[in-house]
Amino acid sequence: MQPEFRVLTPDTIARIIGQEIEIIQSPGIKVGTPEPLELLQSFGASVINSGGVVTIPEELVLNCLDTVPRSFSLFNGDGKRDQRYTRSPFWDQYDLWTRHARLPGLPEP
Q: What are the pLDDT digits (tens) for 60-76?
């Protein structure tokens, strides 16, 4: 069993996510090359000026966060697993859509 390392509380993480969503909606983010800009547009983001500034709707962000795997591994040059990362328990305790804690024992939506 690996020890759990927490730097931020669930409330702090929730606040950070909320503020990040606000920032990417207004004023938006600058995307420096055409390919990712076009990809974001194809998923519903809006280009707001010719300088490559794009706004990303909250629903798109939340849908992307819902696809984050529970864990992933990094492999070394020999093809052997070098590191394994597991998603924080925060994601199982917090509902991004409602921005409220999930009740213990309830399945993920």
A: 988 888 888 888 899 99
**Interatomic CA distance for residues 98 and 14, integer angstroms:** 11
Tokens of 72: 């992933």
Domain ranges of the chain: 10-95
CA–CA gap between residue 71 and residue 109 (Å, rounded): 19
Global pTM reads 0.63
* Three-class SS of the chain: CCCCCCCCCHHHHHHHHHHHHHHHHCCCEECCCHHHHHHHHHCCCEECCCCCEEECCHHHHHHHHHCCCCEEEEECCCCCEEEEEECCCHHHHEECCCCEECCCCCCCC
